[in-house]
Specification:
Blueprint: H1 26-35, H2 38-51, H3 53-60, H4 66-76, H5 79-93, H6 96-106, H7 109-124, H8 128-144, H9 146-158, H10 161-182, H11 192-200, H12 203-221, H13 227-237, H14 240-276
Length: about 280
C-alpha cells in the first residue's frame, strides 16, 4: 500500500496536513507501524533517493557537487530521521477505532505474507533488471490472467493509489522547486504561480508513470497470493478502518517527502549558484 518513491522528476510547498482524527494509544500504534514494516519501507525509499542524487547532479549542476553533494543527500535522506517523523504523524493521525481491526489483519498470517511481499518487491525494485522482469511478468499476466489484473486494478482504485501518488508527487516537486528558489538557484524572480504552472505540466506524464509502476510493483508484490487472498485484502482496504489507515500512511509519507524535497532543492541551489557564478 506504500508506493511512492523518494525520487523526483527534477523540478516542487509542503501542503498543510489535515487535523488528526485523534491520537490513538501509542503502544498499539507502534505495533501496527512495526507490523506493516514501515521502518523498512522508509529505509528502502531513502536508498532510492540517495541513488537518484547522481541524476539530479547530472541534470542540474553537472561537474559540481562531488562528495560534498553526496554527503548532503545522505544527510537529508537519513532514514532514522524520516522514520521518527513518520511515526509521530502516524500516531497522531490514527483514530482508536482504526487500530484493532488493522492490527488483527496485519498480524495475521495473511497480513504478514502480504507485507513480506510488499517489502521484498520494493527492495527488488532498487535494481533496474528486477523492474524489467516485473514488467515482463505483468505483460504475461495481462495476457493470461485478466481476473488477477482486474483485482489489482480494484485494489488500486479502492486505495486511491494513483491519485494519492500523483498529488503527493506533484506536491513534492513543488517543494523541491520552492527549495531551489529559496536557495537562490534562479538568477531572476520566480513566483509561486510560475512554479505551480511548471509543476502541473508534469501531471499527465507522472500519472502514466505511476499507473505503469503500480501495476508492475503490485503484480510482483502479490504474486504469491491467491485471488481469494487478494480479494480479502481489497475488502479490508475498503472498510472505514482501512481507509483511515491508508490516509494516515499517506499523510506521514507526504510530510517526509515534502521536507526531503525542499531540503534537496535548497542544497542543489548552492551548487547551481556556484556553477553560474
Amino acid at each position: 500500500m506504500f508506493m511512492r518513491s523518494f525520487t523526483l522528476p527534477v523540478v516542487f510547498a509542503a501542503v498543510a496536513l489535515a487535523p488528526g482524527q485523534g491520537s490513538a494509544d501509542a503502544v498499539r500504534v507502534d505495533r501496527l507501524f512495526d507490523a506493516t514494516r514501515l521502518t523498512e519501507i522508509v529505509a528502502i525509499m531513502s536508498q532510492e533517493g540517495i541513488a537518484y542524487a547522481d541524476t539530479l547532479q547530472a541534470e542540474l549542476f553537472p561537474g559540481e557537487g562531488g562528495a560534498a553533494w553526496q554527503a548532503e543527500v545522505e544527510r537529508i535522506h537519513a532514514s532514522d530521521r524520516a522514520i521518527a517523523e513518520m511515526r509521530d504523524i502516524f500516531v497522531a493521525r490514527l483514530s482508536e477505532d482504526t487500530i484493532d481491526p488493522m492490527l488483527q489483519f496485519y498480524e495475521s498470517p495473511l497480513g504478514v505474507r502480504i507485507v513480506d511481499g510488499e517489502v521484498i518487491a520494493r527492495e527488488a525494485f532498487l535494481d533496474e533488471t528486477a523492474k524489467d522482469t516485473a514488467k515482463e511478468m505483468l505483460d504475461e499476466m495481462i495476457a493470461d490472467q485478466p481476473a488477477r489484473i482486474s483485482l489489482i486494478n480494484e485494489f488500486i482504485e479502492v486505495n486511491d493509489l494513483i491519485e494519492s501518488n500523483v498529488v503527493g508527487g506533484l506536491n513534492s516537486n513543488f517543494a523541491f522547486y520552492r527549495g531551489l528558489e529559496q536557495g537562490g538557484a534562479f538568477p531572476y524572480e520566480i513566483t509561486e504561480s510560475q512554479m505551480l504552472t511548471e509543476v502541473w505540466q508534469q501531471e499527465a506524464e507522472m500519472r502514466t508513470e505511476t499507473e505503469d509502476w503500480l501495476l508492475s510493483y503490485l503484480g510482483l508484490a502479490y504474486a504469491g497470493l491467491t485471488d481469494a487472498e487478494l480479494e480479502t485484502y481489497v475488502l479490508i482496504s475498503s472498510t472505514d478502518a482501512g481507509d483511515s489507515f491508508n490516509a494516515a500512511v499517506f499523510a506521514a509519507f507526504d510530510a517526509v517527502f515534502n521536507r526531503v524535497s525542499e531540503e534537496l532543492g535548497e542544497a542543489a541551489a548552492r551548487y547551481i549558484s556556484a556553477e553560474d557564478a
